[in-house]
Each structure stands twice: as structure tokens, then as C-alpha cells.
Amino acid sequence: MSDQIKFIVDNLNKEPFRKNYNLITFDSLEPMQLLQVLNDVLAEIDPKQVVDIREEMPEQTAKRMLSLLGILKYKPPGNATDMSTFRQGLVIGSKPVIYPVLHWLLQRTNELKKRAYLARFLIKLEVPSEFLQDETVADTNKQYEELMEAFKTLHKECEQLKTSGFSTAEIRRDISAMEEEKDQLIKRVERLKKRVETVQNHQRMLKIARQLRVEKEREEFLAQQKQEQKNQLFHAVQRLQRVQNQLKSMRHAAADAKPESLMKRLEEEIKFNSYMVTEKFPKELESKKKELHFLQKVISEPAMGHSDLLELESKINEVNTQINQLIEKKMMRNEPIEGKLSLYKQQASIISRKKEAKAEELQEAKEKLANLEREVSVKTNQTREFDGTEVLKGDEFKRYVSKLRSKSTVFKQKHQIIAEFKAEFGLLQRTEELLKQRHENIQHQLQTIEEKKGISGYSYTQEELERVSALKTEVDEMKGRTLDNMSEMVKKLNSLVSEKKSALAPVIKELRQLRQKCQELTQECDEKKSQYDSCAAGLESNRSKLEQEVRGLREECLQEESRYHYTNCMIKNLEIQLRRATDEMKAYVSSDQQEKRKAIRQVILEQYTKNIAEQENLGKKLREKQKAVRESHGPNMKQAKMWRDFEQLMECKKQCFLKQQSQTPMGQVIQEGGEDRLVL
To answer: Span 286-308, mean pLDDT?
Structure first.
């Protein structure tokens, strides 16, 4: 209930109501004021409901509100008996009845505005069958129904056009502008042709102009290529500086580092990279794929209106309530094994979230570090170019320090003021809580006293009875007045109906003639509309064909450009390889020994000979080791056998000693000269 009141108060404080309520003031509103608030909300939905309730009878207000709520399809909770209580509560201005109505209306104001607007034109007027026997009345009723059906179709088309996003006026404007430009270009080309034909050697001049245009395009292309190469050179220089900085930092780190610390650092980096590759990046990739699939699904669906969005929101709320109910049922079961598993699952999810957060923080820190290093390199380059930096010195530095001190004192003062405000706010909160507790205690004491006396709920019922009795007296007085007024109104209405019938007879005759003219005009309008639709469809098809041709030509142009760039790159690579091959052949064939040494074949040959010599030395050392092992194999085997025998002997002594301790003494053990003898 508190969430409902909070939602109502928040929406009433917004546009277009601007009530400036809070929870206490709204809850303390009287029934008449609450009914006025409900009437203001209904007036926002339907402007016909703008009425001051004090100047209207309670029965009329209740009837008017009930009819509008019925049009808006509001379903009060409960059955038929609850419907009577709902009507009575609406007349009285009861909070349990009006709060749900306000909550329902403020949740879907835009949708209800649309429904109220349509209800003005789509709710049929019930005409008695006696009046329908008259031809004029029957014709007007039939025309009324036809107009209602036409309104339905027009409204549907209007909604479809609003959601489609196309406008025929813009398309017509674009087509007319394109046709005008086309005509202007054709006229300009014809004028230029006539002007050129009078000049001598115009064919030769046209050829030279064509060549000039080609050379200008080539010049622009070469300038663009030059700019691209400059950019590539600049990026290469930056990359070289970055690599040099990395090399310096690695050398500096390797100078003081130990192999153990380096291994630890490498292991940490390997763990971090493996975590990023095996766990984080696949999860992010799956989430991005899901988002892409969802977005493609949304794009493929037709455009949605506000009513569709409200339906989806209501479905989402229903599903969320079902999920909450299932969670509550699961919590009510209180199974110990599932509770332990849920604890472990929560701990695992918390640890995984912490791990992901730390990994993201580490990644962000690395990116920040790289950006800072890049900025430092740029700043150092700028200082080298400008030969100096702006560093505060002397008096300027002292002024800067004095400014910082003054700002720090101001900051401390402001911080102290904020702390005082916070302390005062805490005291006010505490006093509010104490007052609320005291109010609850007084209410509880009053209830306990009433229960002791046997009259529980006496105060509440007494207030309600007084209010109901006062309302009943007012209603009785109003009924007496309304009966007299109604009898007078019936007489007046009967006289007005008879006057209107006599006045409408000539108008109905004129209406029949106008109806025939209207039918003829509608036929002409339909014919013109069909002609316009056929013309527009032809222009649209021509435009789509031209767009397809332009797209195809652009794609061919792009393919040819990419093929041209690819062939240029391949030619440059082949030229570099050919240059390397010619240099190698020159170095290999030349008589100069130094150039031969520079050749790749010579370098590879020297490397292989060096490797062969190293392997031969290793083979000699291994053969010597094998010889030494063969010579010492026999004595070593004997020594190993002696050790095994000695081990068996010691084991046997151990078992004899254990048996001696476990059995009764059968003899005497004598130790002499480091030997043990058993004497029986």
C-alpha cells in the first residue's frame, strides 16, 4: 500500500498536475478533496470531466465517474457484492477504493487518453426501435454507423503511418526536386554543346580537356597517396619510439631484477592472460552475440506503438511477480541441503564477480598506463621541439602555494559545515523515528484498552458512523431537491423534443440531396486517388531501379580500387624480393671475401659448421662418460649387493630383538666388544 501511495504522489507532483503533495499531506486529505483529485486525473484523460465537485450532486459525480471508468475498462477487485461496496466507496470518497483507481489511471495515462478519445466516436447511441421505423431516423442511423466504420479504418491507417516513419510529402518533394535538377542539367548540357560546336578544332580541345581532367584526378590521387605515406611514416616513428621506450624499461627492469622475481612476474602475467582468454573473453563474446541476436530480432519485428509497449511492460511485471512467488515458495521450504548449496553458489558467484571486477580494473589500469606513457612520449617530443618547458619557479611557485593553502582552508571550513549539517540531519531523523514510535505506542495502547473493555475498534467505528450519518443526511436532502428538479427537466425536455422534430423536417430533406452529391464526389475522389497511386508507384519503381544501378556501379568501383591497390602492393613486394635475390647473387659470385661473408649462404654454412663442431665435442664427452661408467659398473654392483645383504641382516636382528621382548626371557644377552651374544 505504501508503494502504491508513493507512486501516486510522485505522479501527481509531475506535469501536468503539479500538486506538490507528500505522503503525509496526501494521506490526510478529506474525502471531498480526494474525489476532486480523482476528478482532476479523469479530466486529464477526458477534458469533458472538468467539473468542480462542490457544485455537483454526489450521485451525479458517482454516475459520471462510473460511466467513464466503464468506458476505460477498469475492473474493480472482487465480485458483485464488492461492486456495491465499490460504488458506495466512490460516493463516500473512501481511500481503499480511490487509491487503486488512481494507481491504475496514473500507470497508463497515455493509453487511456487514446481510449477516451476513441470512445467519443465509437460508442453507439442506443436508438429505440420505435424511432427507427421512421425513414429519416433510420437513414441518419445508418449513415452514423457507416461514418463510425470509416472512422475506424482511417484511425488504423493513421496509426500505421505514424509508426511506419514514412511521409508521402517528403517523397513527392524529393521526386520533384530530382526531376527539376535533371531538366536543368539536360538544358545546361545542350547549351554547352551548342556553344562548343561553333569553336574551331573543338574535338581536339575536348580531348585536351579530357586529358587535363584525367591528370588532375591523378594529381589528387598522388597527393592523397603522399599524405597516406606521411601518415604511415608518422605512425612508424611513433611505433619506433614506443618500442624504444619499452626496450629501455625492460633493460632497466632486468638490470635490478632477479630470475626468481622475473619468473613470478611472468607466471602472474601468464595466469592473467590465460584467465582473460579462457574465461572472460568467451563470456563477453557470448553476451555480445546474445545482444546482437536480440537486436536483430528487434529490427526484424514491425514497429511497436505505445500500447504494445505497455502490454509488454504488464507481461514483464506479471512474470516478475511469478518469479518472486516461486522464490518465496522455495524459501518457505527451507531445505538444508539446498540452503548449503545456495550459500556455496552465492560465495562462488561473489568470488567470480570479484575476480572479473579485478581483471577489469587491471585491464583499465594497463590501458591508463599505456595512455599515460603515450602522453609522456608526446610531451617529451614537444619539449624537445620547443627547447623548454613551463615550470613554476620563484615567486610564481610561492603564489601557487599560497593559493593552494587558501583553497585548503576554504575546503576545511566547507567540510566542517557539511559535517554539522549531517549531524543535524541525523538528529532530525532520530526525532522523527521517536515521534513515529510514540504515535504507534499510543495507538497500540488505545487498542489494548478497547480490547480490555471489550469494545475493540470502537474509535474507528464511531468515526465512520458519524461520517456516514452526516453523508446520509446530506444525501437525503439532495434527493428531495433532485426529484423536483428532475420532474421539471422532463417537462422541458419533452417540449424541446417536439420543437426539434418540427424544425428538423426541412433539414432532413436537404440532407438527402446533399447525400447524393457526397456519393458522386466520393466516386470522383476514388478515381483520382487510383490514378495518383498508379503514377506514384511507377515513379517509385523507376527510382528504386536507378538506386540499384548506382549501388552496383559503386560496388564495382570499390572492387576495382581494391584490386588496383592489391596489385600495387604485390608488385612492390616482388620488387623487394627480386632486389634481395640480385644482391645475394652479386655477393655470392663476387671475388671479394668480405662480400661473400655477408651473403646469406655463407652465414648459414658457417653456422652449420659451428653447430657440427659443437655436436662432435659433445659426442666425445659422452663417449668418455660411457667408458667411465662401464669400468665402474662391476664394483658398484658388488657394493650395492653388499649393502642389500647388510640391510637384510639388520632387519633380521630387529625382528629377533622384537621377538625377545614379546616372549618370556629364555636366556641372557651379553654385550662384549661391540657384539651381542645370547646365552640360554
So the answer is: 76
Q: Of 15, 215, 211, which Cα lies nearest the Cα of 109? A: 15
Question: Which residue from 40, 58, 57 is spatially nearest to 49, judged by alpha carbons?
Answer: 40
Query: What's the mean pLDDT when you consider all of the chain?
Result: 79
35, 53 contact by CB (below 8 A): yes
What is the mean predicted confidence (pLDDT) over 22-39? Answer: 82
For residue 389, what pLDDT band results from cuts at 50, 70 and 90? very low
pLDDT at 576 over 80: yes
Could you tell me if 46 and 116 are in contact, meaning their C-beta atoms sit under 8 angstroms apart?
A: yes
The conformation of residue 134, written as its DSSP 8-state character, comes to S
Q: What is the mean pLDDT of residues 18-31?
A: 80
For Cα atoms 262, 268, 270, give the angle at the middle one, nearest 5 degrees: 100
pLDDT of 524 higher than 80: yes
Sign of CA dihedral 63, 67, 68, 70: positive
Contact 109, 48 (CB under 8 A): no
List strand residue ranges (DSSP E) for 504-652, in order: none
> Cα separation of 417 and 326, whole Å?
49
Q: What is the mean pLDDT of residues 439-449?
A: 81
Q: pLDDT at position 672, please? A: 59
Q: Supply 493's cell numbers.
A: 425536455
Cell of 346: 552465492
Q: What is the mean pLDDT of residues 508-519?
A: 80
In the chain, the N- to C-terminal Cα span, in Å, equals 103
| Domain 1-123 falls under CATH 1.10.418.70 | yes
Tell me if residue 632 falls in helix, strand or coil.
Answer: coil
Q: How many residues are present in the chain?
A: 680
Q: CA 446, 451, 454 angle in degrees (round to 5)?
A: 125
- Torsion angle, alpha carbons of 513, 516, 520, 523, to 10: 150
**CA 468 to CA 464: how far, in whole Å?**
6
Give the span between the Cα atoms of 175 and 210, in whole angstroms. 32
pLDDT tens-digit series, residues 82-114: 677 777 787 787 888 888 888 888 888 888 888
SS3 669: strand
Instruction: Taking the CA atoms of 157, 163, 169 and 172 in sequence, report the sign of the dihedral they define.
Output: negative
- Give the alpha-carbon dihedral of 448, 454, 458, 460, to 10 degrees: 50
Indicate the pairing of strand 668-672 with strand 675-679. antiparallel
In eight-state DSSP terms, residue 492 is H
Is the Cβ–Cβ distance between 52 and 40 less than 8 Å?
Answer: no
Q: How far apart are CA 400 and CA 390, in angstroms?
A: 14
Contact 119, 71 (CB under 8 A): yes
- Tell me the per-residue pLDDT of 168-212, one tens digit each, with 9 for 90 and over: 677 788 888 888 888 888 888 888 778 777 777 777 877 888 888
CB 59 within 8 A of CB 51: no
> What letter represents residue 554's amino acid?
R
| H-run or E-run covering 343 | helix 336-386
3-class DSSP assignment, residue 389:
coil
Residue 141, Cβ density class (10 Å: 0-12 exposed, 13-18 middle, ≥19 buried)? middle
